[in-house]
Structures are given as C-alpha cells and as structure tokens.
Amino acid sequence: MTNADVFARNAAHEIRLYARQPLALARGSGCSVWDANGKRYLDFFAGVAVNSLGHCHPAVVEAIRRQAGELLHVSNHYHTAIEGELAELLCRHSFAERVFLCNSGTEAIEAAMKLARRWGAEMGGGRYEILATHGSFHGRTFGALSATGQEKYHRGYFPLLPGVRLAPFDDLDAMEAAVAPETIAIMVEPIQGEGGVVVPKPGYLRGLRALAERRDLLLIFDEIQTGMGRTGKLFAYEHEDVAPDIMALAKALGGGVPIGALCTTDRIAAAFTPGAHGTTFGGNPLACAAAVAALATIAEPAFLAHATAMGTRLRDGLERRVARHPHLQQVRGLGLMQGLLLDGPGGAIVARCLEAGLLINCTADRVLRMTPPLIVTADEVDEALEIVDGALAAA
Ligand SMILES: *Cc1c(COP(=O)(O)O)cnc(C)c1O
Known about the structure:
The protein is of the alpha/beta class. The chain has 2 domains: about 5-55 and about 300-395, Aspartate Aminotransferase, domain 1 (Alpha-Beta Complex), CATH 3.90.1150; about 60-300, Aspartate Aminotransferase, domain 2. The protein has helices at about 5-15, 45-50, 60-70, 80-90, 105-125, 140-145, 170-180, 205-215, 265-270, 285-300, 300-325, 345-355, 380-395; strands at about 25-30, 30-35, 40-45, 100, 130-135, 165, 185-190, 220, 245-250, 260-265, 330-335, 335-340, 360, 360-365, 365-370. A 7-stranded mixed beta sheet has the order 4-10-9-8-7-5-6, sandwiched between helices. Strands 1-2-3-13 form a 4-stranded mixed beta sheet. It is globular. It binds pyridoxal-5'-phosphate. Pyridoxal-5'-phosphate binds near residues 106 and 137. The site of pyridoxal-5'-phosphate has 15 residues, from helix 5.
C-alpha cells in the first residue's frame, strides 16, 4: 500500500476526529520513521512525547515479546508479579508509595480527581472542589475535560463536571485568591504542554506546595507529558525539589504501549478502598512489561544526563535562530520539551518540515513543539535544526 492507498481507505471509514498530516507511517527505528512510500523522516514529535525511547527500542520490544508468550491479560481479581514490579519501580524512583495502573493519561487524571474528591469527602471535611488552570490540558474524558482550561475542547460538551474551577497559570496570588472553603485540590502541569510549552516562573511549584500546606489542599501534578525524563529529570517536579500528593503519568510510561498511572502517598491512597475505583485493563501484563523495560532504561542517570545534554543542544540551536529570524519570538521549554514561539500560525512551517523529512507539531496555534525521543543524537539534533532553518527561510 502507498501513502495514497492508506489515506483513501482511512478517509472512507474513520470518524474524522483528527486533522491529520498527509503521511502514512509504516515503520520506525530509533528517531526515524518511514512512510508507506519508503521515505524517511526524523521524528521530533515522537507520538506526542510518547516514544521517548525512540521507535521499537530493543529493551521494550524484547519485554513485550517475552510477556506475550507468558500472559497477556488477567483480571484485577488476581495478582500478577509484573504489575507489582512496575509499581515498585515507580515508587522507588518518585515520591510515591502507592500506584494505581490504568490505560491512558485522561484515565490517570480521572483517577486523580476521584481520589481527591474521595479524600475530601472522607478526610477533608466534605470539600470537593478541584482548581485547575487556564491554558491547561488534562485529557478528554469529562472530568479531565472540565479541568482543561481551553475553550476549544469544551465546545458542544456542556454541562461539564461541576466542582471544577480554573485559575490563572503561573500566578500564585491568583491561585491563593481562588481557593474557596470547598476547595480540596489544585491540579497543574509542571510545564503546560498542549497549552504551548508554557514554563512557569522558578518557584511556582514550590509556591503551590506551600499554598497546599497552608490551606490543607492536595497538590496534583499532571506529569503525563513532562514525566519520564522529558525535561531531563525523571519527573519535572524534581527541578524544584518539591513533591505533589498525587501525580498522573501516561504517554512515555509504556515505551509506546498504552498505559497510565496514578501515583500517591500511603496517607492519600487510604481514601481509595476496595471497589472505589477500577478498570478492566489496569495493570495489564503486556503494558506493564513494556513499562518496566521503559522505566528501567529511562531512570538510569547516564540516560537522563544524555537527555539533558541533548536538550541543551536543541535549546541553544533554537536560541541562535531566534536571534537571527525576525519571525521567531522566544524559545521555551526544559530538556527535550522545547517550544518555538512564532509571530503567526505555525501550520505552514510544520508542513514544510514534513516535506523536508522532519516531524514536529504546532500547538496553541503558533508554538512549534519539539519533543524528540530522549535517545536523540547530536547529529540528529543538528539535522533537525537545519531542516527547521530551511522551513523558516521558505516561509
Ligand atoms: C496527553 C496529555 C493528557 C491526556 O492523555 P491521554 O493519554 O491522551 O488521555 C493529559 N495531560 C497532559 C499534560 C497531556 O500531555
């Protein structure tokens, strides 16, 4: 099948929910993918920051192969060793003491919001309200959607979940002012991803932590995009030396396989008792095996040091271009999560990069977002920067 064959069949049968690029991907290895016509692309989008180990990383592929021959699925009525191995690894490498496994980012957020509510109902004097932020993105199910501070995702879905309110991002005073007698939790992304790679001022997460202490609130970090080494630390909260009470993970957690996780402390987890929440596929052995392999690889200090070095190289390269190109306004991001703010819409530049063999995306209309695999090499970073140059020159 050629690209055209794939487009035609997909267009005939899919519900048109995605504004897709004219590209049918057939295979991938490392930071490269190939389309159905055999053309190679350098992948600096990495499946929206999912393929942090690149495509078909041997450790992940091998773990999946092995697990596939042993056990694919059992119900949560029973234990498996592999889910415990993943939960133990997550706890060893984070603030967490307890983990709930699910299947996606939005499910991890739903679980976080439900846990906060349940905690509020049972230990928080009946408080129930969750504060999130303008410009945020937390997912598409109703709870996560209600906490997503972007109108374009809400259109046609009212009424949303009550008891969720939005406050400005990166504004501690506004957040403090927003706290009401019924508020139980504050939920933020350490860096807003879909909102346009918005990095808060230094001290913001620490300030939220202090606010949560002062007002007896739970602090929820959505590390679905920033987690798993994306910013150069395993979790972005480590940059500020604070820990949340609850953390949501997904995206890169499974090395390319769908999985989500809610991480929390013993104290907070006590609000979830048997039957209070659950999901059929949660802790699925195949997904857990992939995640164990991915997490064990990413958590290596040398691996994270490499991601940090490559993040610096990408960042420096982008900064130099901002100094030269009048249409580039700002580089923002951390580690290998970088955004290039343009003075106008970025769709045409994304299309030119695609033609030239580079996958990136444009988010929040005018932010070119680059989230390459963390295994990216210096040569690949330089190659991507050159393609971006060409696309900018042509624009
Ligand atoms: C992608 C994302 C989500 C939603 O994850 P899904 O797996 O698409 O449901 C939530 N929060 C953030 C920060 C994300 O980047």
